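Inverse folding, one chain.
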């Protein structure tokens, strides 16, 4: 077993893909309204994922001020559409500012205000390439259920904060949010219809690919 990487190496990898002024301003807005945005390493991973999948349709749970949404949009196809859900309308207004500053056409970002578990059932089954989750940690298992319905075969669900400030790896920590994330990781790992990986970028990014079913060929 190799030694864990140092804090210096972790910081170096996080900073590999530099953020521009648009993302910097989006992070400043996030701090002003008390939102914790995905880290730069996690954002770069989302852009990479969207690019590799040639993503045309993406769902985001937790709009924030548009940091993760802009990373995703920059990796998606030029005609790709991000559907982003958040209960806070003010956050979504700030996210739209971010998207506009980033040169994203209005029709490419659809913001829906409301509880994710009320909005997601209204979205189309099997239509989406990626479902990115950065919402209520205690609802992560419920988001997984919805994501697997929404994803096309070969699509990927991604969960931010999968290491939850180093709490998930510490068995002595048993608060509700940490326990919910641990249960999610167990569910994903035990599901033969998923191909999982847990990336130690940012605060942890859990990815799971929805396998192609035999019926799909």
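Residues assigned per position:
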């Amino acid at each position: 077993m190799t030694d864990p990487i140092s804090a210096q190496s972790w910081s170096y990898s996080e900073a590999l893909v530099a953020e521009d002024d648009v993302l910097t301003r989006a992070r400043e807005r996030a701090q002003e309204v008390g939102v914790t945005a995905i880290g730069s390493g996690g954002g770069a991973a989302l852009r990479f994922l969207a690019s590799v999948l040639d993503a045309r349709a993406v769902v985001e749970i937790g709009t924030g001020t548009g940091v993760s949404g802009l990373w995703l949009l920059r990796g998606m196809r030029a005609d790709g559409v991000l559907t982003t859900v958040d209960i806070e309308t003010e956050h979504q207004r700030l996210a739209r500012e971010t998207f506009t500053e980033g040169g994203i056409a209005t029709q490419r970002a659809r913001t829906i205000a409301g509880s994710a578990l009320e909005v997601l059932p209204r979205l189309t089954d099997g239509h989406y390439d990626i479902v990115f989750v950065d919402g209520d940690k205690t609802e992560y298992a419920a988001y997984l259920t919805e994501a697997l319905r929404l994803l096309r075969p070969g699509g990927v669900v991604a969960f931010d904060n999968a290491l939850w400030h180093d709490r998930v790896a510490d068995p002595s920590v048993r608060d509700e949010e940490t326990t919910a994330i641990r249960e999610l990781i167990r569910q994903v790992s035990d599901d033969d219809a998923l191909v999982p990986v847990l990336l130690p970028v940012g605060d942890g990014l859990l990815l799971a690919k929805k396998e192609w079913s035999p019926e799909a060929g």
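The radius of gyration is 17 Å. The first helix runs from residue 7 to 14.
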